[in-house]
Amino acid sequence: MKKIGLLILSILFLHGCANNQEPSNSSDIEMPQAIMPSEKYNVAFVIVNGVYNSELVAPMDILHHTVYHTEPRMKVFTVAPDTTLITTFEGLKIKPDYSFASAQLPDINVLVVPSAEHSMSSDLENDELINFVKEKGNAANYVMSLCDGAFVLAQAGLVDGKESTTFPSDIDAYAQRFPQLKVHKGVSFVHDGKLITSVGGAKSYDPALYLSELLYGKKAAEGLARGLVIDWDINSIKFVRVAD
To answer: How does strand 182-184 pair with strand 93-94?
Structure first.
Protein backbone atom coordinates (compact mmCIF):
# COMPACT_ATOMS: atom_id res chain seq x y z
CA MET A 1 0.00 0.00 0.00
CA LYS A 2 2.85 2.41 0.84
CA LYS A 3 4.46 1.74 -2.54
CA ILE A 4 1.18 2.47 -4.33
CA GLY A 5 0.76 5.69 -2.37
CA LEU A 6 4.28 6.83 -3.22
CA LEU A 7 3.71 6.00 -6.88
CA ILE A 8 0.53 8.09 -6.97
CA LEU A 9 2.29 11.02 -5.30
CA SER A 10 5.15 10.75 -7.79
CA ILE A 11 2.76 10.80 -10.74
CA LEU A 12 0.91 13.83 -9.35
CA PHE A 13 4.20 15.64 -8.77
CA LEU A 14 5.44 14.99 -12.28
CA HIS A 15 2.10 16.04 -13.77
CA GLY A 16 2.22 19.31 -11.85
CA CYS A 17 5.76 20.02 -12.99
CA ALA A 18 4.83 19.37 -16.61
CA ASN A 19 1.88 21.76 -16.65
CA ASN A 20 2.92 24.59 -14.31
CA GLN A 21 6.30 25.97 -15.30
CA GLU A 22 8.42 28.34 -13.25
CA PRO A 23 9.54 31.59 -14.91
CA SER A 24 12.83 31.85 -16.72
CA ASN A 25 15.29 34.67 -16.12
CA SER A 26 13.93 37.42 -18.37
CA SER A 27 17.13 39.46 -18.08
CA ASP A 28 18.84 36.79 -20.18
CA ILE A 29 16.33 37.14 -23.03
CA GLU A 30 17.54 39.36 -25.85
CA MET A 31 14.83 41.17 -27.77
CA PRO A 32 14.87 40.43 -31.50
CA GLN A 33 15.26 43.17 -34.06
CA ALA A 34 12.07 45.23 -34.32
CA ILE A 35 9.71 44.12 -37.06
CA MET A 36 8.89 47.70 -38.15
CA PRO A 37 5.65 47.01 -40.06
CA SER A 38 5.35 48.83 -43.36
CA GLU A 39 1.57 49.07 -43.07
CA LYS A 40 -0.84 50.22 -40.38
CA TYR A 41 -1.78 47.56 -37.83
CA ASN A 42 -5.47 47.24 -36.97
CA VAL A 43 -5.96 46.34 -33.30
CA ALA A 44 -9.35 44.96 -32.24
CA PHE A 45 -10.39 44.77 -28.59
CA VAL A 46 -13.13 42.18 -28.09
CA ILE A 47 -15.56 43.48 -25.48
CA VAL A 48 -18.58 41.88 -23.85
CA ASN A 49 -20.73 42.85 -20.90
CA GLY A 50 -18.76 42.56 -17.69
CA VAL A 51 -15.38 43.31 -19.28
CA TYR A 52 -12.95 44.60 -16.66
CA ASN A 53 -11.77 48.19 -16.97
CA SER A 54 -8.10 47.52 -16.22
CA GLU A 55 -7.65 44.72 -18.76
CA LEU A 56 -9.35 46.81 -21.44
CA VAL A 57 -8.05 50.31 -20.80
CA ALA A 58 -4.39 49.61 -19.93
CA PRO A 59 -3.36 47.88 -23.20
CA MET A 60 -5.66 50.13 -25.22
CA ASP A 61 -3.96 53.17 -23.72
CA ILE A 62 -0.53 51.91 -24.80
CA LEU A 63 -1.46 50.75 -28.28
CA HIS A 64 -3.57 53.82 -29.07
CA HIS A 65 -0.69 56.12 -28.12
CA THR A 66 1.42 54.61 -30.89
CA VAL A 67 -0.10 57.43 -32.98
CA TYR A 68 2.50 59.71 -31.36
CA HIS A 69 5.49 57.38 -31.60
CA THR A 70 5.28 55.23 -34.73
CA GLU A 71 4.68 55.52 -38.43
CA PRO A 72 2.62 53.84 -39.70
CA ARG A 73 0.54 54.04 -36.56
CA MET A 74 -1.95 51.57 -35.13
CA LYS A 75 -5.70 51.86 -35.53
CA VAL A 76 -7.36 50.74 -32.30
CA PHE A 77 -11.06 49.90 -32.05
CA THR A 78 -13.59 47.81 -30.15
CA VAL A 79 -15.73 44.98 -31.48
CA ALA A 80 -18.63 43.25 -29.75
CA PRO A 81 -21.45 40.83 -30.54
CA ASP A 82 -23.56 43.85 -31.55
CA THR A 83 -23.30 47.62 -31.29
CA THR A 84 -25.57 48.10 -28.29
CA LEU A 85 -23.93 49.62 -25.22
CA ILE A 86 -21.52 47.38 -23.33
CA THR A 87 -21.41 47.78 -19.56
CA THR A 88 -18.07 47.02 -17.94
CA PHE A 89 -17.87 45.20 -14.62
CA GLU A 90 -17.17 48.53 -12.95
CA GLY A 91 -20.12 50.23 -14.66
CA LEU A 92 -18.65 52.16 -17.59
CA LYS A 93 -20.82 52.31 -20.70
CA ILE A 94 -19.03 51.72 -24.01
CA LYS A 95 -20.43 51.98 -27.52
CA PRO A 96 -18.61 49.34 -29.62
CA ASP A 97 -17.09 50.53 -32.87
CA TYR A 98 -18.11 47.38 -34.75
CA SER A 99 -20.24 44.30 -34.33
CA PHE A 100 -18.92 40.81 -35.03
CA ALA A 101 -20.99 40.70 -38.23
CA SER A 102 -20.22 44.24 -39.44
CA ALA A 103 -19.34 44.40 -43.12
CA GLN A 104 -17.15 47.43 -42.31
CA LEU A 105 -15.01 45.56 -39.77
CA PRO A 106 -11.37 46.05 -40.86
CA ASP A 107 -8.95 43.17 -41.22
CA ILE A 108 -7.50 42.51 -37.78
CA ASN A 109 -3.73 42.38 -37.25
CA VAL A 110 -3.83 42.23 -33.45
CA LEU A 111 -6.76 40.62 -31.65
CA VAL A 112 -6.97 41.53 -27.95
CA VAL A 113 -9.26 39.65 -25.55
CA PRO A 114 -9.54 41.31 -22.13
CA SER A 115 -10.96 39.44 -19.17
CA ALA A 116 -14.64 39.76 -18.35
CA GLU A 117 -16.87 38.76 -15.47
CA HIS A 118 -17.91 35.52 -17.17
CA SER A 119 -14.69 34.62 -19.02
CA MET A 120 -14.45 31.42 -16.97
CA SER A 121 -18.10 30.44 -17.27
CA SER A 122 -20.92 31.44 -19.62
CA ASP A 123 -18.68 33.27 -22.11
CA LEU A 124 -17.07 29.91 -22.88
CA GLU A 125 -20.47 28.57 -23.94
CA ASN A 126 -21.16 31.58 -26.19
CA ASP A 127 -20.65 30.11 -29.66
CA GLU A 128 -20.86 33.50 -31.35
CA LEU A 129 -18.03 34.85 -29.22
CA ILE A 130 -15.84 31.75 -29.41
CA ASN A 131 -16.27 31.35 -33.16
CA PHE A 132 -15.44 35.01 -33.78
CA VAL A 133 -12.32 34.83 -31.63
CA LYS A 134 -11.26 31.61 -33.34
CA GLU A 135 -11.74 32.95 -36.87
CA LYS A 136 -10.15 36.35 -36.31
CA GLY A 137 -7.44 35.00 -34.05
CA ASN A 138 -6.33 32.45 -36.62
CA ALA A 139 -6.08 35.20 -39.24
CA ALA A 140 -4.36 37.82 -37.04
CA ASN A 141 -0.64 38.51 -36.81
CA TYR A 142 -0.85 38.54 -33.00
CA VAL A 143 -3.38 37.49 -30.39
CA MET A 144 -3.25 38.88 -26.86
CA SER A 145 -5.23 38.01 -23.76
CA LEU A 146 -5.37 39.80 -20.44
CA CYS A 147 -6.17 37.94 -17.22
CA ASP A 148 -8.92 35.35 -17.78
CA GLY A 149 -9.19 36.24 -21.46
CA ALA A 150 -6.84 33.26 -21.82
CA PHE A 151 -9.81 30.98 -21.06
CA VAL A 152 -11.62 32.36 -24.11
CA LEU A 153 -8.55 31.90 -26.32
CA ALA A 154 -8.07 28.35 -25.08
CA GLN A 155 -11.74 27.52 -25.63
CA ALA A 156 -11.33 28.79 -29.20
CA GLY A 157 -8.37 26.46 -29.70
CA LEU A 158 -5.88 29.30 -30.11
CA VAL A 159 -3.66 28.11 -27.26
CA ASP A 160 -3.34 24.49 -28.42
CA GLY A 161 0.32 23.55 -28.61
CA LYS A 162 1.33 26.88 -27.03
CA GLU A 163 2.58 27.95 -23.62
CA SER A 164 0.52 30.51 -21.72
CA THR A 165 -0.49 32.12 -18.45
CA THR A 166 -3.54 33.74 -16.89
CA PHE A 167 -4.67 35.50 -13.70
CA PRO A 168 -2.56 34.02 -10.86
CA SER A 169 -5.40 32.79 -8.66
CA ASP A 170 -7.13 31.19 -11.67
CA ILE A 171 -4.14 29.24 -12.99
CA ASP A 172 -5.24 26.01 -11.30
CA ALA A 173 -8.75 26.30 -12.75
CA TYR A 174 -7.23 27.06 -16.16
CA ALA A 175 -4.95 24.02 -15.99
CA GLN A 176 -7.84 21.81 -14.88
CA ARG A 177 -10.13 22.94 -17.69
CA PHE A 178 -7.38 22.74 -20.31
CA PRO A 179 -5.05 20.01 -18.98
CA GLN A 180 -3.23 19.67 -22.30
CA LEU A 181 -1.74 23.16 -21.99
CA LYS A 182 1.63 24.15 -20.54
CA VAL A 183 0.94 26.95 -18.06
CA HIS A 184 3.46 29.34 -16.49
CA LYS A 185 3.27 30.78 -12.99
CA GLY A 186 5.06 33.79 -11.57
CA VAL A 187 5.39 35.77 -14.80
CA SER A 188 3.76 38.91 -16.17
CA PHE A 189 3.16 37.41 -19.60
CA VAL A 190 4.09 34.59 -21.95
CA HIS A 191 4.92 35.07 -25.64
CA ASP A 192 4.69 31.95 -27.80
CA GLY A 193 4.57 32.47 -31.55
CA LYS A 194 1.83 34.97 -32.28
CA LEU A 195 0.20 34.38 -28.89
CA ILE A 196 0.77 36.70 -25.92
CA THR A 197 -1.06 35.85 -22.69
CA SER A 198 -0.88 38.06 -19.60
CA VAL A 199 -1.78 37.86 -15.92
CA GLY A 200 -3.73 41.11 -16.33
CA GLY A 201 -4.53 43.61 -13.59
CA ALA A 202 -2.03 46.43 -13.23
CA LYS A 203 0.41 44.34 -15.27
CA SER A 204 -1.83 44.70 -18.33
CA TYR A 205 0.49 47.46 -19.51
CA ASP A 206 3.41 45.03 -19.80
CA PRO A 207 2.33 42.90 -22.78
CA ALA A 208 1.20 45.98 -24.72
CA LEU A 209 4.55 47.71 -24.18
CA TYR A 210 6.33 44.48 -25.06
CA LEU A 211 4.37 44.14 -28.31
CA SER A 212 5.10 47.78 -29.11
CA GLU A 213 8.82 47.18 -28.61
CA LEU A 214 8.66 43.98 -30.63
CA LEU A 215 6.99 45.77 -33.53
CA TYR A 216 8.44 49.28 -33.42
CA GLY A 217 11.61 49.05 -31.36
CA LYS A 218 12.93 50.09 -27.97
CA LYS A 219 12.80 53.84 -28.62
CA ALA A 220 9.09 53.74 -29.45
CA ALA A 221 8.28 51.59 -26.40
CA GLU A 222 10.24 53.89 -24.10
CA GLY A 223 8.44 56.90 -25.56
CA LEU A 224 5.06 55.25 -24.99
CA ALA A 225 6.04 54.44 -21.41
CA ARG A 226 7.26 57.97 -20.66
CA GLY A 227 4.00 59.40 -21.95
CA LEU A 228 2.12 57.32 -19.38
CA VAL A 229 4.70 57.80 -16.59
CA ILE A 230 5.76 54.14 -16.63
CA ASP A 231 9.30 52.99 -15.91
CA TRP A 232 9.82 50.54 -18.76
CA ASP A 233 12.75 48.18 -19.01
CA ILE A 234 11.98 44.82 -20.59
CA ASN A 235 14.86 43.25 -18.65
CA SER A 236 13.15 44.07 -15.36
CA ILE A 237 9.97 42.20 -16.32
CA LYS A 238 9.48 38.51 -15.54
CA PHE A 239 8.16 36.97 -18.72
CA VAL A 240 8.60 33.93 -20.92
CA ARG A 241 9.31 33.97 -24.64
CA VAL A 242 9.18 30.56 -26.23
CA ALA A 243 11.84 29.99 -28.86
CA ASP A 244 10.57 29.71 -32.42
So the answer is: unpaired
What residue ranges do the domains of the chain occupy? 37-242
Helices 53-64 & 205-216, crossing angle to 10 degrees? 20
pLDDT at 28: 59
Secondary structure element (H or E) that encloses residue 212, with its range: helix 205-216
How many residues in the chain? 244
- What CATH class is the domain 37-242? alpha beta
What b/e string do you get for 72-110 counting C-beta neighbours within 10 Å, with b at 16 or more? ebbbbbbbbbeeeebebbeeeebebbbbbeeeebeebbb
Is 9 exposed, middle or buried (CB count within 10 Å of its CB: 0-12, 13-18, 19+)? exposed
Question: CB–CB of 109/102 below 8 Å?
Answer: no
SS3 204: helix
Consecutive H or E run containing 197: strand 195-198
Backbone angles phi, psi at 218, to 5 degrees: -65, -40
Percent of the chain's residues with pLDDT above 90: 84
Task: Express each pLDDT in 216-228 by its tens digit.
Answer: 999 999 999 999 9
